[in-house]
Specification:
Blueprint: H1 6-18, E1 22-24, E2 35-46, E3 50-60, H2 64-79, E4 91-102, E5 112-122
Parallel strand pairs: 1-2
Antiparallel strand pairs: 2-3, 3-5, 4-5
Helix pairs in contact: 1-2
């Protein structure tokens, strides 16, 4: 069974939206001052043809207002996916399971804003019988 790789799909979708900010699955060392990290943090299968991954979007920027603005750009873009095929597979629904919150980077003290989204996406390749 194969489910859509939600992190890869979201990364491709968000790159032009947040350009020139990078969008990654794993934080590079050294970390750029401005960055969006996406990571799948769970989710559920919705049989027969849906996956509902939970995805963290973590946004770093040089100042608190800039980090909030970057997180808001990501937030609006993720919510805009509902009812579309902008990722390739159909996105049925987007829910915010944890709204944006400021959590300074524990290693550097850099401004950082994090949110978690639940994205119901069609998973044709994973149809179970």
């Amino acid at each position: 069974m194969a489910y859509p790789d939600i992190v890869a799909l979201l990364r491709t979708y968000l790159l032009p939206i947040v350009d020139p900010v990078g969008v990654v699955g794993r934080v590079p060392d050294p970390r750029p001052a401005r960055l969006v990290q996406l990571r799948r943090v769970g989710g559920t299968q919705l049989r027969p043809v849906r996956d509902q991954p939970r995805v963290d979007a973590i946004c770093w920027d040089a100042t608190d207002p800039a980090a909030v603005a970057l997180a808001d750009t990501v937030r609006r873009a993720v919510h805009a996916l509902a009812g579309t095929t902008l990722l390739g597979p159909t996105v049925y629904r987007v829910d915010e399971t944890l709204g944006p919150m400021s959590i300074d980077d524990p290693l550097t003290g850099s401004p950082r804003v994090m949110a978690t989204y639940s994205i119901a996406v069609r998973a044709d390749e994973a149809i179970s019988r």
